[in-house]
Amino acid sequence: IFIMSLQAMAQNNPRNTRQDNRRSQTEMRWTAKERAENMAKQLNLTNDETAKVQALFEKQDAERAEQIVKHRAERQNVMQDREQRRTEMQALREKAVAENDAELEKIIGKEKFEQWKEYRSEQQKKFRDANRQGRRNINAPGAGK
Question: DSSP assignment, residue 132?
């Protein structure tokens, strides 16, 4: 009984599941090249457009990495209210998305950009629906057996 209870506690440890989720999320991330190739496939981009889109994505990834480093350093130095940080980060992200979308539209044109926004929206919806379904399964009676 003691061994079985230890096994059950280890399986239900939230720390283990968080680390596994974090690991799987980073493994699932696409490189700038993969994202550009996917967009090229979806929108029939030219080689020039694909190269420019890939360069834009690489630039965005570098900027995002810099932001992460900056915010981690700030977090260590200054303890701010959690909601205030969330609002600031959301505003920064929205601004970055708007700027990136504007640059992308310049490269591929308005028509292809609208197609891309529609495709991206569908993919986000699928991802959210899959996450919601996963949460339901976790909380369902008998889950984890």
Answer: H
- List Cα–Cα distances, 113 to 27, 49, 93, 101, 139, in angstroms: 27, 12, 19, 8, 39
Write the single-letter amino acid at 105: E
- Do 89 and 71 contact (CB within 8 A), yes or no? yes
Total-model pTM: 0.50
Q: What's the full length of the chain, in residues?
A: 145
Residue 109, sorted as left (phi over 0), alpha (psi -120 to 50) or beta, turns out to be: left
**Closest of 58, 49, 56 to residue 30, by C-alpha:** 58
Please spell the DSSP secondary structure of 54-87, one letter per residue.
Answer: HHHHHHHHHHHHHHHHHHHHHHHH----HHHHHH
pLDDT at residue 65, as a whole number: 92
Decide: helix, strand or coil at residue 48.
Answer: helix
End-to-end CA distance of the chain: 17
Q: Which of the residues in the chain have pLDDT under 50?
A: 23, 144-145
